[in-house]
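ugh ok so i messed up the first submission bc i forgot one of the chains. this is the corrected input, ALL of the components this time, i swear. 768 residues overall. if the numbers dont match what u have on ur side tell me asap before i send this to the collaborators (the ones from the other lab, u know who)
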Amino acid sequence: MQILPDVQIIQRPGIVEFGWGHPAPELLPAEALARAAALTLGGDWHAALTYGYGQEPGRLIELIRLRLGRLEGVTPPAEQLMITAGISQALDMLCAQLSRPGDVVLVEAPTYHLALRIFRDRGLRAVAVPGDGQGIHVDAAEAMLHMLRSGGERVAFLYTVASFGNPSGATLTAERRYALAALARRESLMVIEDDVYGELWYDAPPPPPIYNLAPGGPIVRVGSYSKVLAPGLRLGWMLAAPDLVRRCSSCGVLDSGGGVSHFTAHMVAAFLELGLLDPHVEGLRAALRSRRNVMLTALSRHMPSGCTWNPSLGGFFIWVRLPTDTDSAALLPAAEAAGVGYLPGERFFAEGGGQNYLRLCFSLLPPDEIAEGVRRLGAALRRG
Amino acid sequence: MQILPDVQIIQRPGIVEFGWGHPAPELLPAEALARAAALTLGGDWHAALTYGYGQEPGRLIELIRLRLGRLEGVTPPAEQLMITAGISQALDMLCAQLSRPGDVVLVEAPTYHLALRIFRDRGLRAVAVPGDGQGIHVDAAEAMLHMLRSGGERVAFLYTVASFGNPSGATLTAERRYALAALARRESLMVIEDDVYGELWYDAPPPPPIYNLAPGGPIVRVGSYSKVLAPGLRLGWMLAAPDLVRRCSSCGVLDSGGGVSHFTAHMVAAFLELGLLDPHVEGLRAALRSRRNVMLTALSRHMPSGCTWNPSLGGFFIWVRLPTDTDSAALLPAAEAAGVGYLPGERFFAEGGGQNYLRLCFSLLPPDEIAEGVRRLGAALRRG
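and heres the new structure output, hopefully the right one now
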């Protein structure tokens, strides 16, 4: 009998895989994490090995809120912060607290495709709001909200990856952030701000988080250590109104077992205490900036005319628009035969569309493979 | 501002805490886990730090199924086994797959009180089936099932801690296990067998798991490393029909983030590969057996007449029956004033009852504290 795999990613020999939105193995700080693990299981290990509690652990909450204060100038109080098992777990937990089956969720078009699956599992219907290179159209979101509500629909929340979006790479401008924060307050529309890529800026930091623009407003901000440290830690955090933090952290699952990523939460606390995170993020930005640059250069060189893309200013992805009559899903087998893979754009649209888009990930592969992969993609597109 | 705590447990000076169902700090294998962590983050660390997948990881699934085969004589195929973030997460995930809000769940009276909270969060109504020193009454479960179904109710599943139950310490007899397996098949009643304490037997192993008695039947068995290794790892496993494993492991949350306890799953795989688990469990059994014996001896010496209890043959708890007119919840403040805590029995009954019971945990405290705590409890009961 064959043993099942250990990891999600499937690497196919001969294919440059731009489809997987994963960090490169060589960029994961294994040695530094080994130091953090040794510290966690060294002298004072008891807290890391016994039951945590829902919001938990206090030492990591304290380290995160002080770091946020240092980076962003706003130090959230501990009662607004909760540790999660990554953004996926946070989204599922938020669905449980904020929605009922049959509710609508407003999402950007395009949006993170796997969030759509989490919403669907909770019986929610995703309704797409158009976006552009500057993020979601707030006016369109407002119009859609009114239309849905006047039709008797219950809109549970709006979900957006505001900085360096997946798949678009787009960043919501400061103006639109203020507008969205104001809309959220005015209409009591809960907004979930997925800030998974916020620290991974390559040119300049993104505008302030929406969460910071509407103190006390109906905003939840979710963050993650999957991209800045390691996905396998399954660790993230959530900022929300104290009441919502209380409701989430006192749910049955967490009351029984304590925080789901309790051990790695203590490891990451040790990582922060050792002062290892900031230099690591610095190095990661440099490495990913150079990969991003290699991809942009290769795209300019190899893409046929009629293809366009925005220079992503952060995150993992470049979102390529093909000529209108090109279907990226239909083209994929030919591209793979030419030795390059990507994710077809249509996966990122909750209500259809995006056939002439594709998502390229530049975080996983070394620069020379990126250049070669884009060359192959250009050739495949030219052959059409 | 005060920093939030790191752990669930609150220890109050001067009080012998029999209420917390936690393992003793000195019984957690911190040093051996440090070896496992060092191995995990040593040479071949990539799989442990990147994204896992829903069922995951293959190496741990393989180690667990071979160990089960060695211990129980039945080696489950990999397609029936899935790694979980502990039993609480598994129960929540199973509720999502097996139930709809409004459904009924059959539970034992008494049953694990925090499972009731998880079921409630999913909108389920727990209906109690009487149990005794030999576990749940299968005939009563069948009668209840028929009554509910004929009343138009949908029964999602029956939940039971079959070996060394929490709080009762009772173990379902082999005869009742066969009867329950037959009932499950005959009535297509899904049975969730919570096997959290199965390895912690102090006199003789429990009867075969219900799961093994009904191959292909509607049984799910959930296990955990919280009691035999460390709660903070948030790691467990689930045995179920391949189709149910597939549905659980392909849900949106796991599709996006991979297995929730991915890193500690790799640590525990290393722990097993290093051959550390069996000797640890052996030592744990010896330590807990001796604590159990100390508690039984102290109970015989100090309990007033009219109090009865069964000698728990495994697990963490002894379930004490007080005289019928004694209310354990009402007595608790006086007991705490006398320096001893416990959990009142009524918490473990889904539909009321149990006022004259209390749960004592013998896994957390050293033997001398156990003896002293039982002495104080006896005195408090005598003062009544």
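quick check: Chain A has a mean pLDDT of 96. that seems consistent at least. The longest helix of chain A spans residues 277-302.
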